[in-house]
């Protein structure tokens, strides 16, 4: 028995050592690109061209971030991006969950045909030109709601949420019906709260997709500056810096002295600053949603 116990202890030590070393290497590989991007974003633009920047900026500078926020349009675009992200996420979650609950009910005779129609939209798309004429026919060109209305329902999210709803014990719904609750009240008081873990994950996907979107702005709202989003403005900024090694028009705080040459930004440095600016809001929101990813709230709600 003592020999077996020693063998088990040795195996445990070896496993824990290997596991810790593997996770440490994985953490370094995962975090290094992000830390390196932060270091490059805070480094002087011209010095960045030399390379050799790893975990810490060699010549600390805020010129890259000044160049990003140099234009006043960035601030308005920031609020537009926040508004479209919040509205798209909230409405998509509520309406998609409502549709998912309807299609999960066995007594609904049209649930299979409607489900098939929704799933088909995941595989077949009319294309960009027909979609443009559809948006134009709906009067959504140069309209803020072009960011929200096309994203109200997601077929993929519907399938995920419907599968999750089907895992909720039917006895919860039956007990609510016995108490006199209707379908809409059951949806609001029973289904929606129990779907929080699933909805938190879906919310992160929808929010990230909406926050990072810029192509719809380019197609539908490029002629209206007040509807420009942050990602679109950053894309234009990055495109303008890519035309040359340095763009004097984008230099922040450039004076008439010899320091002007050191305050220019380069495509590599401005790209790093843009990446950090674009990713930071999602990084701030993610910790508040992470706790819902592990366990569902319906665990242990019914004892049978």
UniProtKB/TrEMBL annotation:
PROSITE patterns: ABC_TM1 (PS50928). GO terms for cellular component: plasma membrane. It is found in: Cell membrane. Residues 78-289 form the ABC transmembrane type-1 domain. CDD domains: TM_PBP2. The keyword Cell membrane applies. Pfam families: BPD_transp_1 (PF00528). The keyword Transmembrane applies. The chain crosses the membrane at residues 12-35, 78-101, 113-133, 145-165, 186-208, 268-289. It comes from the Bacteria. Keywords: Cell membrane, Membrane, Transmembrane, Transmembrane helix, Transport. It is a multi-pass membrane protein. GO terms for biological process: transmembrane transport. Belongs to the binding-protein-dependent transport system permease family. This is Putative aldouronate transport system permease protein.
């Amino acid at each position: 028995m003592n020999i077996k116990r020693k063998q088990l202890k040795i195996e445990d030590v070896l496993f824990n050592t290997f596991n810790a070393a593997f996770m440490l290497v994985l953490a370094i590989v995962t975090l290094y690109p992000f830390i390196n991007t932060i270091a490059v974003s805070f480094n002087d633009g011209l010095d960045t061209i030399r390379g050799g920047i790893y975990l810490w900026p060699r010549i600390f500078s805020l010129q890259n971030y000044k160049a990003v926020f140099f234009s006043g349009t960035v601030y308005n675009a920031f609020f537009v991006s926040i508004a479209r992200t919040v509205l798209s996420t909230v409405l998509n979650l509520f309406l998609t969950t409502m549709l998912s609950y309807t299609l999960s009910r066995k007594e609904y005779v049209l649930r299979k045909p409607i489900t098939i129609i929704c799933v088909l939209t995941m595989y077949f798309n009319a294309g960009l030109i027909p979609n443009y004429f559809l948006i134009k026919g709906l009067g959504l060109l140069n309209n803020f709601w072009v960011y929200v209305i096309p994203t109200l329902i997601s077929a993929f999210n519907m399938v995920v949420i419907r599968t999750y709803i089907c895992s909720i014990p039917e006895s919860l719904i039956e007990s609510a019906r016995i108490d006199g609750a209707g379908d809409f009240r059951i949806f609001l008081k029973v289904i929606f709260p129990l779907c929080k873990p699933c909805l938190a994950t879906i919310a992160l996907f929808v929010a990230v997709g909406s926050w990072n979107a810029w192509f719809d702005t380019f197609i539908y709202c490029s002629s209206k500056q007040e509807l420009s989003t942050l990602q679109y403005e950053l894309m234009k900024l990055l495109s303008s810096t890519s035309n040359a090694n340095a763009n004097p028009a984008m230099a922040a705080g450039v004076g008439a002295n010899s320091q002007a040459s050191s305050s220019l930004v380069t495509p590599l440095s401005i790209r790093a600053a843009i990446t950090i600016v674009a990713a930071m809001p999602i990084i701030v929101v993610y910790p508040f949603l992470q706790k819902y990813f592990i366990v569902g709230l319906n665990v242990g709600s019914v004892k049978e």
